Amino acid sequence: MQKTLPVVIATYSRRMRLRLPDGKQVIARIKGKRIKPVCADRVEAERIANEKDWLITKIDARDNELRRPNLRGQIEVLAANIELLVVVTAGSPKPDWFITDRYLCAAEDMRVAAAVVYNKTDLEPNRTSAQAEMAWFSAIGYPTVMCSAETGDNMDELKTLLAGRIAIIVGQSGVGKSSIINNLTNSDVLPTATISRKSGAGRHKTVNSVMLQLQGGGAVIDSPGVRDYAPALESAAQVRQLYREIETAGRECRFNNCRHTREPGCAVKLAVADEQISARRYESYKRMLILTEQNKL
To answer: 65 and 77 in contact (C-beta within 8 Å)?
Structure first.
């Protein structure tokens, strides 16, 4: 029988908050510089003599990692042991659907379930373009929810989706991730921020990752918002596998190693022309190919 270990539920640089197997929460430091726990990590820890703090001595084997290259080109782990990745977008700030695609690629790479949420429906009565994008995500098998954390519209649908799973909420700054989590947990534990009038972009409010328990089981991780994101990928072949509809259509291509860009008889390009594959998603795929190849240089 596997031993139950403490779990990291919040990160503050070199200090962590742990939830012990008995449910008690404690603050812990990290032993050495090589150990870098993240939210949802299972760790080995021990009480420091004559102190309230604990000491994290080892990270247990991870089921998966949400990763990205940092500004120095090094791989940064954002969270671990995730069972569901929820990408949130909204009408304000202006949605960047390419960031949504990249997070979905990360979920495919991690082999975990993913969903797309469109928040702030109360602020945007005319949502035709957003509904069209959400329809494409739904058509290729991703659960979608259009909701309002402010009014509670369709939040029960989102709660059902998250129930019993360890989920992470990701997306652009300002789309209302913290507001969604406050609604899900029936609290105001996470601070929220308004959109910058000058830039129209979201303000970064979450600066550390925090994992909160959900009523009825499961947990949700709030992560810092981003203005850009890309998963850490290694090859064009990997990119082809992470776009569901492109991977499926590509099985009919003339060449086994078809990149789906300029090759003759490409089934993917034909499917795009026939509107069986979203032209925007195809453009997203080509951008990801270029980005992956640039990161290899």
So the answer is: yes
Pairwise CA distance, residues 109 & 101, whole Å: 12
Convert the pLDDT of each residue in 38-50 to its tens digit: 999 999 999 999 9
**Closest to 36 (Cα-Cα) out of 69, 11, 3:** 11
**pLDDT at position 91:** 87
CA 65 to chain centre: 11
**Residue for token pair 């990360």:** 106
The whole-angstrom separation of Cα 76 and Cα 237 is 22
First to last CA, the chain: 46
Low-confidence stretches of the chain (pLDDT beneath 50):
1, 190-206, 297
CA distances from 35 to 12, 14, 44 (A): 14, 10, 11
Going by C-beta distance under 8 Å and a sequence separation of 6 or more, which residues neighbour residue 119?
A: 88, 89, 90, 147, 148, 149, 175, 176, 179, 180
Per the structure block, which two tokens stand in for 52?
A: 């309230």
- According to DSSP H, which parts of the chain are helical? 97-110, 128-139, 155-162, 177-184, 236-242, 244-249, 267-273, 279-296
**pTM listed for this prediction:** 0.88
- Which one of 3.40.630.10, 3.40.50.11540, 3.40.50.720, 3.40.50.300 gives the CATH number of domain 65-222? 3.40.50.300
Buried residues in 184-210 as b, exposed as e (16+ CB within 10 A): bbeeeebebbebeeeeebbeebbeebb
Give pLDDT tens digits for 167-208: 999 998 889 998 999 999 887 654 444 433 444 444 434 457
What φ, ψ does residue 112 adopt, rounded to 5°? Answer: -125, 160
pLDDT at residue 136, rounded to an integer: 97
Res 293: pLDDT? 81
Fold (CATH) for 7-59: OB fold (Dihydrolipoamide Acetyltransferase, E2P) (2.40.50)
- E strand segments, 31-72: 43-47, 54-59, 65-69
The per-residue pLDDT for 44 is: 97
